[in-house]
Write a structure and sequence with these properties.
Length: 404
Amino acid sequence: MLAPEPFFEPRGTPFSEYHRIKALVELGYEIDLVTYPVGQDVHLPNLRIYRCARPPFVRRVAIGPSFRKILLDLLLAFTAFRRARPGRYDAIHSHEEAGLIGVWLARRLGIPHLYDMHSSLPQQLANFSYSRSKLIRWCFERSEQAMLDGSQVVITICPALQETAVATGAGDRAILIENVMGGDVEPVADVIPVRERWDIGAGAPLVLYTGTFESYQGLDLLFAAASHLATTHPEARVLVVGGNPDQVAAAKAAAERTGAPLVFTGRRPAHEIPAFVSACDVLASPRIAGTNTPLKIYSYLRSGRPIVATDLRTHTQVLEPGTAVLTPPDPAAFATALARLLDDPDERRRIAAAAAALAADKYSRASYLARTREAYDRLLGAGAASRPTGGSGARGETGPVATL
């Protein structure tokens, strides 16, 4: 498996990769993961992690396109080339732009390739305001087409990406597997006292945002909505979990100037997030750009807390009427929706119950495992997960070896 991200780090694609690996080892596969030199090791049965070399100046990797990622992708390719020998693997499974490496390697080894499509590469240019160059956009479009054309199976993680795969001619090879596990992690015994630690009154109405500080997340919208909320609900607080130190410092300074009732925790370990969710009254997803469904939406549905989200396709391709409060991407409208739920405990309970029912019906872990099995049955042939493989190299007795 080729994963061009910090693995593991508590953010979108690494979460998706983690749950994909967890499902595959549960289905009997052995996995050699080739990834960046940044991130925390995880320990799962039949998973081996191989990290590419670390340039001396690289300590973290930002989300989105960058020259740093290009360098790391070249080093990842070198590590993958060293590992990919004839007879060692049954398939190659590549995430994001590593599909370019994976398609070439699979063709060279004569084995099938699966492309895990977490986003549209051309759309990333707009989401991250990376470049307006027509040449760079053309390169991204050609790269995406090459990865789709060269893959025997394509996994898409939301309906919008499934439509992209269909439009580019890969519809007969694409399978939609939504990230239903979201940001879920293994439970831990310690439950942190969220309100006490961040000096939030036990009875104060509390809105929670968790995630990164990238521009497409709509934090400016949320912060402006918090200022509106302060005029009608002065006791309310908006708890913001995430962001690197520089981002948090800038946001804190802005909040102090405007008097917005924002409380910042910075980035927190993934296993703490359930405690933050349990401490809040309302969950906020103010995303303003892109069409991918935010990973957290699926775990939010199961949380027992109501969701307020922007009425854009990034949300509406999953959230159905009555399972969330959907509002225009406008600060006043978003604040009104938050206030409405904070004032009405019965409506909060109704919406949360409808959300949980939707999650159980359409976004269960059982459906996720079944779709993952289907993808690999397509890749290797019916019954591949249980077929004995024998052979040499990294293969063992538990099942086929997939390199991700």
